[in-house]
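Sequence design from tokenized structure. All designs in this work follow the same two-part layout: the structure record, then the generated sequence. An example of the structure record is given first.
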């Protein structure tokens, strides 16, 4: 949840990482919030990029489980990360969906209680292959859904179907799990923006996660190894055993502050507040499949759909 800066893009070019998408329109929707592009110096971004690349290579080479998780199906936005996703009941000829964070929308961050539904969009996404290389460009037809109330999620409907993406790029979508994530699960946060894989475990769940004016429910808390940075907002959180998406990465406590922007705090059922500096979080998505029906059409009144309504 930080402001996207040109300096970060320049740093990528200097570092030779090539992670910045070249096709998306300039966006300043994720200003000062969560894990959108970091507003740090060029030097800090370059150093982190170089270090993260070496770290990711080491993780991939040394962990058999992680080899099953790669970048295929992830996307890079101009300021965030995302992924092409399908639900268990989605069909190959359904319009494809891209999932990211609500705070990454080009229309601006939704305020508390705000919900964006069926808003026209022509935003583009850089589709990545398994090694993190550019496979092609995808385009949205609309923002199907976006909010920062109770959760932090957005879904773009694309102009192409899953079958067309498979035919053109030989890439399948990631499947959204329809069961609650489990503590201790080995996970990978796959950032299309940075082309980096973060590997850790689910440490537990926050009953409420409060950040500035926003409150998220039943958030996923990572173990400390997933030290996600700006630009990882919207990354799919992938179960290493099933390769299904169990959450969407969105924020973390950077400075140890209490319940402020970029410093979310946990609030339990009794109202007790816990601050965990350096710990990062994601939002659960297992119930969202109930909100999308035939042809991936959104129906917020469908049985089992708990997403906030406009």
């Amino acid at each position: 949840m930080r402001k996207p800066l040109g300096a970060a893009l320049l740093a990528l070019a200097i570092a030779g990482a090539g992670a910045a998408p070249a096709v998306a329109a300039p966006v300043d929707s994720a200003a000062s919030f969560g894990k959108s592009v970091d507003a740090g110096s060029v030097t800090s971004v370059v150093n982190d990029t170089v270090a993260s690349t070496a770290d990711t290579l080491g993780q991939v080479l040394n962990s058999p489980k992680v080899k099953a998780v790669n970048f295929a199906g992830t996307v890079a936005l101009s300021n965030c990360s995302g992924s092409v996703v399908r639900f268990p009941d989605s069909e190959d000829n359904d319009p494809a969906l891209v999932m990211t964070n609500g705070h990454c929308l080009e229309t601006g961050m939704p305020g508390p209680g705000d919900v964006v539904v069926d808003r026209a969009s022509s935003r583009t996404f850089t589709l990545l292959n398994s090694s993190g290389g550019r496979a092609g460009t995808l385009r949205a037809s609309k923002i199907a859904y976006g909010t920062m109330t109770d959760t932090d999620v957005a879904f773009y409907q694309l102009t192409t179907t899953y079958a067309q993406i498979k035919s053109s790029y030989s890439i399948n979508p990631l499947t959204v799990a329809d069961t609650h994530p489990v503590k201790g699960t080995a996970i990978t946060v796959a950032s299309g923006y940075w082309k980096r894989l973060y590997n850790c475990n689910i440490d537990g769940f926050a009953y409420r996660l409060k950040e500035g004016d926003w409150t998220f429910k039943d958030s996923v808390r990572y173990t400390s190894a997933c030290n996600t940075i700006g630009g990882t907002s919207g990354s799919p959180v992938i179960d290493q055993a099933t390769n299904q998406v169990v959450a969407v990465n969105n924020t973390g406590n950077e400075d140890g502050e209490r319940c402020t922007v970029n410093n979310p705090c946990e609030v339990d059922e009794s109202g007790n507040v816990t601050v965990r500096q350096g710990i990062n979080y994601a939002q659960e998505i297992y119930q969202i499949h109930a909100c999308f029906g035939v042809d991936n059409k959104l129906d917020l009144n469908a049985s089992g759909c708990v997403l906030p309504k406009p």
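The radius of gyration is 17 Å. We note this feature because it recurs in several other targets discussed in the main text.
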